[in-house]
Specification:
The complex is a heterodimer of chains A (about 110) and B (about 110). Chain A is built from no helices and 12 strands. Chain B is an all-beta fold. The chains are: A mainly beta (about 110), B mainly beta (about 110).
Chain lengths: ~110, ~110
């Protein structure tokens, strides 16, 4: 069985400070992992994905995530938050033979 | 523009109405999906089609009826819905099942 836990339902940061959104996963197989972002009244947009190549994955808009097998984590980071980063972020795990499993989401607020 | 187009973007319907949501993808993908996103709930997979054949029905009530006439189009027919069916319905596509999924912007449904 596979599962995803997003450890924070809401994260608030000041503009220009680092962002850390935490995600832990559980999977019986070597998974693919994704981060999606959803801005208000929009669909989900792919930020980045890990598919067993480099463990540090770079995505769009300056985001990156590091796959740590020993910690079963795939945390999303960004060095400096922008106001436009305010959105809902979803961590997703795919073990290949079952439908994608989505986390419950983390709402990121950016304070000016 | 994600390559996955959903219409209408907003729909209000009575409980006795019949309406349909439409999804079209311009990405040449073979798999298409319907997801339901309700407030304060994880994203729920409803249906999966692969090469026009339904491969997943996630215990969805029969008042939701999907139709996939070809690999580029997916419909969700709605009949005698309940107020608790009010949600954002997201269509998505992928090259095949198990690949990265690309979402449309969603159709906001309100059942009154």
């Amino acid at each position: 069985a596979q599962s995803v836990t997003q450890l924070d339902s809401h994260v608030s940061v000041s503009e220009g400070t680092p962002v850390l959104l935490r995600c832990n996963y559980s999977s019986s197989y070597s998974p693919s992992l994704f981060w999606y972002v959803q801005h208000p009244n929009k669909g989900l947009q792919l930020l980045l994905k890990y598919t067993s190549a480099a463990t540090l994955v770079k995505g769009i808009n300056g985001f990156e995530a590091e796959f740590k097998k020993s910690e079963t984590s795939f945390h999303l980071t960004k060095p400096s938050a922008h106001m436009s980063d305010a959105a809902e972020y979803f961590c997703v795990v795919d073990s290949g033979n079952t439908p994608l499993v989505f986390g419950k989401g983390t709402r990121l607020s950016v304070i000016a | 523009e994600t390559g996955v187009t959903q219409t209408p973007r907003h729909l209000v319907m009575g409980m006795t109405n019949k309406k349909s949501l439409k999804c079209e993808q311009h990405l040449g993908h073979n798999a298409m999906y319907w997801y339901k996103q309700s407030a304060k709930k994880p994203l729920e997979l409803m249906f999966v089609y692969n090469f026009k054949e339904q491969t997943e029905n996630n215990s969805v009530p029969s008042r939701f009826s999907p139709e996939c006439p070809n690999s580029s189009h997916l419909f969700l027919h709605l009949h005698t819905l309940q107020p608790e069916d009010s949600a954002l319905y997201l269509c998505a596509s992928s090259p095949g099942t198990g690949n990265t999924i690309y979402f449309g912007e969603g159709s906001w449904l309100t059942v009154v």
